[in-house]
Structure formats: structure tokens, C-alpha cells
Amino acid sequence: MRPTRLRLVAFLAVAAASLAACGGGSSAGAGSSSSAAAPSESASTPAATAGAVKEGLKIAILPKAINIPYFDAAYAGAQKACAEIKAECEQIGPTQATGAAQLQFINTVIQKKYDALVISAADANSVVPALKKAQDAGVAVVTYDADVADTSARSVMVKPTTPDLIGKSQVDWISKAIGSGGGEIAILSAAATAENQNAWIKIMEAELAANHPELKLVDTVYGDDDAAKSAEKAAALMQSHPNLKGIISPTTVGVAAAAKYISGSKYKGTVQVTGLGLPSEMKAYVKDGTVKSFGLWDPGMLGYLGVYAAGVKASGGDPKAGFKAGDKDYTVDGDGVAIVGPPQEFTAENVDQFTF
Fold first, then answer.
1. Domains contained in the chain, CATH given
2. CA dist 111 → 106, 138, 155, 205 (Å)
3. pTM score > 0.70 for this model?
């Protein structure tokens, strides 16, 4: 089934309270009665759940970098889960999205004797030894958003959706935005070492080759999830490829930066931008015609499920057997992966319905 047909009736019919402000600007409706978060591809009824979560756990949330709205929303979901299981929840992390920068925070988790760590790996390889050290020290490790190369360094991975759906959907969005004439496109990614970004790009490349002869991928560049650098990379793409018709950015920082640059440039209306973005950040560019469509999932659910899976592990259970989060049961595949659900496409017709 082509991802164009994904309309995600079940994605997250965000009500007013969904991902509403929660403390320092973070927001999420994960697991609340006001959010109709879709039963994910990994959800089943009933699931073989892994046991109860004990109270009083100390859980650290380590995103690729702090002060990024996407990860703030994920943390708000984690906070909600921590409140439900009566755990102490704290977000820690670097200001730059690199594996090297995350290492000191993993060591802090060990030193401060946290019960669990929920981490989005900025580098799939470099954090593995530190995570194994954390496990040896009795820390339950769960990854979310971006996994590690060695899956023995974590218990469960919470993925937002399947790489296949993410990659194919973004190609479909740029194809529709450019139109039947097609043309040259480029990808503006996050870090070159990000496992999830690289998996999506590989699928996009295969989808372009198999089903979109009208589109020609001419470049892939990396903004390292830094807004200023991403804008610079978008500008450089236009200089290097004057015939460029579209930019796909599979990262919330990159797509917002690219849209902002194109919106204020002579390329507005002739160069299309799409990717994975937050409705709150992208709405203005949809309204002014810079972006025809983009997409994402509910980031709050990543933190929400991550905390529950980590809580099960830290309580002596095995979340790989399946786990319960809120009022839903989630199954975990043979690779230890739980899936939140498929991506939602946002357009001028529906973007006002979403508040995160």
C-alpha cells in the first residue's frame, strides 16, 4: 500500500489538552483520555505483558540534545508516564546532538544510581560501551527515537513508526508537492551517524529509484540538528544545485530551518520543502504556501512508552515479553522493538487541529 493513502484515522486526534504546555514549555498528551493515540502496529489485544512496575523508580531521559521542541514533547510524555507509575523522572543531556556529548550524561546516570535510562542515541555506535557499563551497574536501558547498533546494549527500542512508512511517505509528499514535472531534489538530514536518519534515507533512495523516475536525488547534506547549520546547508544546496525543485528533511530541526530559509528567499514557490516536522513550528510555512505538506507522529508517545518499558525492566520484568502502557498493551518484536504507529500527514486543511 502506498503511503499516500495513509490518513491515519487513528494517529492522534489531538484535543485541546493534547501536548498542552506542561511546565517549561514541554507538552504531551501521551496516554491521556483526551488523546486518541492510535493502537500501534505493535499493539495487540491481549498482549503478553511483562509484569507490574514498582513505585519510586528514578528514571533519566537522555535525548540527542536538550532544548529541541521535538524532544521536549517526548519528555512531556515521559513525565506523564512517570507520574502514572509514581517514578522520579528527569531529563538530562547535551546541547549538541553527538554521541560523544552524551557519554558524560550516561556516566552521570551510573554515578547517581538511576534505576533506568531512556535514551535517543545520537550515535548508534559510540554510546554502546557506556550503555553496557550502565547495564552492568544495574541500570535498565531503553532506547527511543534512535536505536544503537548493538541491541544487547538496551532492552527495548521504542520506534515512532516503521522506517519503510517514514521513508516512502516523505518521497510521496515531495512528489505531490513538486507535481508531475518532477525535477532535482536533495535531502537535508541530521547527523551523518544517526541510525534512524540513515535508515530512512536508504528507503527513500530505494523508493525514488523504484517508483519515482521523475525525481532525481542530487545531494544529501547534514545539519546536525542545529537550526543555524541546517539553514546554511539549505542555502548551500541552492547554490550548488540551481535547478533544485525540492528538499526533504527527515528531522524537525532541519525541516523548520529549511522552510524558514526558503520562505524568506527568492526560491519560495519554486522549491518545495517537506519532511518530519512539528505542527507548531511548521504551521506558518504551510499557511504562507512554502510547505504543501509534511508529517510526523506523536513524539510524546515515544517518551511515554519508553518510561513504561524501562519501568518494567527496572522492576525485574522483561518488557520484551510485551508491556502495558496506560490502558494499552504493546507487543515487542524479535529485535526488541515496539512501534508507536504510522506517520500523520499535515496539510493546510488539517494542521490547525494539532497543537504539539
1. 3-160+298-353 (3.40.50.2300), 163-296 (3.40.50.2300)
2. 9, 11, 20, 43
3. no
Residues 248 and 221 sit within 8 Å (Cβ to Cβ):
no
Q: Tell me how far apart the alpha carbons of residues 187 and 221 are, in angstroms, rounded to a whole number.
A: 6
| Cell numbers describing residue 102 | 552524551
- Residue 159 DSSP SS3: strand
- Amino acid in position 194: A
Among 96, 92, 330, residue whose Cα is nearest residue 190 = 96
Give pLDDT tens digits along the chain (356 positions). 333 333 333 333 332 223 322 222 333 333 332 232 333 333 333 333 456 899 999 999 999 999 898 999 999 999 999 999 999 999 999 999 999 999 999 999 999 999 999 999 999 999 999 999 999 999 999 999 999 999 999 999 999 888 899 999 999 999 999 999 999 999 999 999 998 899 999 999 999 999 999 999 999 999 999 999 999 999 999 999 999 999 999 999 999 999 999 999 999 999 999 999 999 999 999 999 999 999 998 899 999 999 999 999 999 999 999 999 998 999 999 999 999 877 889 999 999 988 78
Which residues make Cβ contacts (< 8 Å) with residue 298, sequence separation at least 6? 11, 12, 14, 19, 28, 29, 30, 35, 37, 77, 340, 341, 356
On the question of a cis peptide bond just before residue 250, with omega within 30 degrees of 0, the verdict is no
Strands 21-22 and 58-62: unpaired
Residue 88 has φ and ψ, to the nearest 5°, of -90, 125
How many other CB atoms are found less than 10 A from the CB of residue 7?
11
Asked if 291 and 285 touch (Cβ cutoff 8 Å), the reply is yes
> CA 248 to CA 166: how far, in whole Å?
12
Q: Where are the alpha helices (DSSP H) in 113-157?
A: 128-136
CA atoms of 180 and 242, how far apart (whole Å): 19
CB 339 within 8 A of CB 42: yes
From CA 184, how far away is CA 1, in angstroms rounded? 25
**Residue 190, CA atoms < 13 Å, CB-side half-sphere:** 28
* Nearest alpha carbon to residue 298 among 43, 32, 96, 46: 32
